[in-house]
Amino acid sequence: MKKFLNKIPVGVFSVIATVIVVYLLLAPASDVENSWFALLHFKHSDKLVHFLMFFFLNLAYLYDYTKFKSPHHTKLDAELAFTAFASMLGLVTESCQLAMGSGRDFDPYDIIADVIGAFAAFGLMRWVGGHFLRKNVFKRHKKRRRHHHHHSKENSEKTQNG
């Protein structure tokens, strides 16, 4: 599995996740109601679906970012930027639902579920997942660097002149 994950170029999971989430949020209501999401039909189940979509969306963003930065540690401000982007995507798609008139309704609670899902993924990756991925999945063979001494011009002239 590690070899498979390491062969996938950085950004692929982010693009796939974004396309899926945007499609599911902007497709006509009839398309989504007849999909496998119909199995998750209970009171407020759409909030759970929103949470899960944005959890996995931001997980994909942060996974790709961690892979890009590996073996180095990720930066908090970049992780928060990806999380904010995922959250804003929820706001934008909800607003588009309102404007498109495709049988979908604008629901501020959906946006809240989106934001909570994105931040849940942030928390998981920040305190557990990123370290695990760097240590166990994105292992890169560490090459020993030779230490080069930089000599001043005077020192190099002394060595040359003997």
Q: How many E strands?
A: 0
Overall pLDDT confidence = 83
End-to-end distance? 58 Å
Number of domains: 1
Low-confidence stretches: none
Topology as H/E string? Answer: HHHHHHH
Keywords:
mainly alpha; 7 helices; 0% strand; single chain; 162 residues
Helices and strands in order, then pairings?
Elements: H1 2-7, H2 12-26, H3 29-33, H4 45-69, H5 76-100, H6 108-137, H7 153-161
Helix pairs in contact: 2-4, 4-5, 4-6, 5-6
Would you summarize the structure shown here?
The chain has one domain.
Question: Can you describe this structure?
Answer:
By secondary structure, the chain is mostly helical. The chain has one domain. The chain is 71% helix and 0% strand. The longest helix has 30 residues. The protein is elongated, with a radius of gyration of 23 Å.
